[in-house]
Amino acid sequence: RDDADIAIEYARKAIKRDRKNSEYHMTLALGYATRLMRGGFSSMFYVGKFKQECEEAVKLDPTNVGAHMALVQYYARAPGLMGGGMDRARETAATVTELDPFLGHIADAVIAEVEEDLAAAESSYTAAALVDTTDPEGWGGLGMFLMRTGRYEQAIPVGKRVARLAPEAADAPYQIGKAYLMIGEELDESE
Question: How far apart are CA 48 and CA 51, in angstroms?
Fold first, then answer.
């Protein structure tokens, strides 16, 4: 048994005590998501369960933005046969935007990336970063997008901004170093 199995077990027990708690359903969904990421044939068993628990979390608490975000990702990536689809993803992203403008931009970026519209994805990640320019999370999302798309030189100043805003963020120096490595430059010792 691993952490995912334990999380699933505890979430199921919590739901038995309080079936109307949205967060318990979301915890169970995240346990299923962890099992899905392991891969293998048995992971397919958890796809429907993940979606079902996210939808239940939203039904119980329509303001549960984490559950809405999980559904955006599911709907954008899952085939129509499994309840996915871009129309549903966009509709859910609109709800996310109403609840949290920052996450609404992230939801739009997720959809754009799945559709391989990199210009729209970059625009949405940038808009998310500009919601609150002092929040490293938005800049981190933009930086990771730039890294995923091979735009390492552009990722470096974004990564440096994240490192300044959140010096405790261990991933920022790693990503900056990786970007320098990818463009074939040495990292300045002062960085």
Answer: 5
Rounded Cα distance between 56 and 159, Å, is 37
pTM of the model: 0.89
Rounded distance between C-alpha atoms, residue 92 and residue 72, angstroms: 6
Token pair for 62: 């329509």
Expressed in angstroms, the distance from the first to the final Cα of the chain is 42
Residue with tokens 């990771």: 144
Mean pLDDT (10-residue bins), the chain, 191 residues: 87 97 97 86 84 98 98 96 95 98 98 98 98 94 96 95 90 90 76 55
3-state SS record for the chain: CCHHHHHHHHHHHHHHHCCCCHHHHHHHHHHHHHHHHHCCHHHHHHHHHHHHHHHHHHHHCCCCHHHHHHHHHHHHHCCHHHCCCHHHHHHHHHHHHHHCHHHHHHHHHHHHHHCCCHHHHHHHHHHHHHHCCCCHHHHHHHHHHHHHCCCHHHHHHHHHHHHHHCCCCCHHHHHHHHHHHHHCCCCCCCC
